[in-house]
């Protein structure tokens, strides 16, 4: 499904609009900061000129800068370089070299690395161990691992390697529940699991979200952040849909607003923002949260007044 829009997205003016729309939909959904997985590809303009990977990053930075100028309360974007796990080893090594150049030029923006693509059809993490050794310590790992409902497969075992490689967060981590030693290690090391409820349901890992392992993670106080995964393909915008299903299906019936608030604050706590940036983000979140609560209370007051008048 991704290849359907490739030619369109590779057109430079279209890519700028595409990226702006991504940021705008996030901002409209009250998202104040984004850690975005991205990959580089050739961009071309109306004259047929093809642009390099370095120019690709420049385009992203220009669009983000322009967006922040128009919406100054948006805190910005940090980037996780995503490489398809189906690529040959030499190509992955070449992409890692690109990542290292990006990180050297923009160390506070180009912050991480991941292997993406369907785990079951790609190479496991262990196949790239020698390449991972070449990644500087200042670049964090954000590995997809365990996005499967199979037990004992290479995808399942990616969880072991992700933790051993000191991943900062685990993408999906759907199979983590089956490994008590691993989920206890995740909890002890404070590694957050990026839970994507709607994606897991759409891709048939689970039919009834009440059976999603995220409910177990909640019950065991395993660090969780709610994320989306290719939301445009099912017409979703922002994160509200995934948050809704997390609260309605994964959280305890007694969870309520306190669970919602914890999940929102987790997004900042388990981000790569530094201490000063987190303080700024938490201040912005608190103001937005207070406005959110005021809106709920005012709505209930209006309903009560209407009932009394009737």
From TrEMBL:
Q: What class of enzyme is it?
A: hydrolase
According to its record, what are the GO cellular component terms? extracellular space
Q: Does the keyword Hydrolase apply?
A: yes
> What is a GO molecular function of this protein?
adenosine deaminase activity
Report the EC code(s) recorded for this entry: 3.5.4.4
Q: Does the keyword Nuclease apply?
A: no
Give UniProt keywords alphabetically.
Hydrolase, Metal-binding, Secreted, Signal
Q: Where in the cell is it found?
A: Secreted
Question: Which cofactors does this gene product need?
Answer: Zn(2+)
Report the superkingdom from the record. Answer: Eukaryota
Instruction: Give the Adenosine deaminase domain ranges.
Output: 3-279
Q: Which GO terms describe its biological process?
A: adenosine catabolic process; inosine biosynthetic process
The chemistry this enzyme catalyses reads: adenosine + H2O + H(+) = inosine + NH4(+)
Which family does the record claim for this protein?
A: Belongs to the metallo-dependent hydrolases superfamily. Adenosine and AMP deaminases family. ADGF subfamily.
**Protein's UniProt name:** Adenosine deaminase
Which organism is the protein's source?
Glossina austeni
